[in-house]
Amino acid sequence: MSLCTRFNPTGNLPCDEKIYIKCVGRFLVGVLRIIFEELGFQVQEFHQQQNGIDMALYDNERLVFVLEIKNWNISSRLTNGKRNKVIINLSKYDCQRLFLYTNPLSKTQLDFIESRGIHLLELGYQILRQPCYDYYQEIDRIIGRIVYTNSIKTEIKSKILEFLNNEY
Q1: Would you say residue 6 has pLDDT above 70?
Q2: How far, CA to CA in Å, does 34 sit from each of 37, 43, 84, 141?
Q3: Torsion of CA 136, 152, 33, 39, to 10 degrees
Q4: What is the rounded distance in angstroms from the CA atom of residue 168 to the CA atom of residue 164?
């Protein structure tokens, strides 16, 4: 068993739950910041966990996108409360709004978000650093999870470019 389990007595996570949620969630935001900067956007990250957007994108100092980003695993569920928080957070801004998530979520919930004028972009997997992935591999829970590599970054960048070509 991974050494990380000593920090989480249930063994369901590789470390303390609050640390895990913060680390995994912020990881994808950091990866996306790099990608969007490479695409020429000025990026502002917001580091709160529950209240507010995760990222704002500017083009020549003009706000063009705000994002809510969820680096969730395949068993994560979008509850009505979480869905409403995404909508409220993004709706505060007068620009294009994007909910970017990692694994499939309820079509009903996603349709509801989209009906509020919010774009959707699914990556298709939760990205993790190698130690977290190794932990989940040890307990045979890697479905919907992938280790972050340069090729994964290139794949995510391609998905974002396709989205931008269609929506921006």
Answers
A1: no
A2: 5, 9, 28, 28
A3: -170
A4: 5
CATH number of the domain where residue 35 is located = 3.40.1350.10
Closest CA to 164 of 116, 100, 82, 103: 100
The answer, yes or no, to whether residue 64 has pLDDT greater than 80, is yes
- Alpha-carbon gap, residue 94 to 63, rounded angstroms: 9
Inter-residue long-range contacts of 123-126, CB under 8 Å, 24+ positions, other chains counted: 123/156, 123/159, 126/24, 126/71, 126/72, 126/73, 126/74, 126/102
Domain of 62?
A: 3-167
Q: 14-39: per-residue pLDDT in tens?
A: 666 565 665 677 889 999 999 999 99
Spatial separation of the C-alpha atoms in residues 55 and 67, rounded to whole Å: 5
Q: In the chain, how many domains are there?
A: 1
Any idea which residue has 């509020």 for tokens? 116
Segment (H or E) for 109 = helix 107-114
8-state DSSP, 97: E
Measure CA 48 to chain center. 14
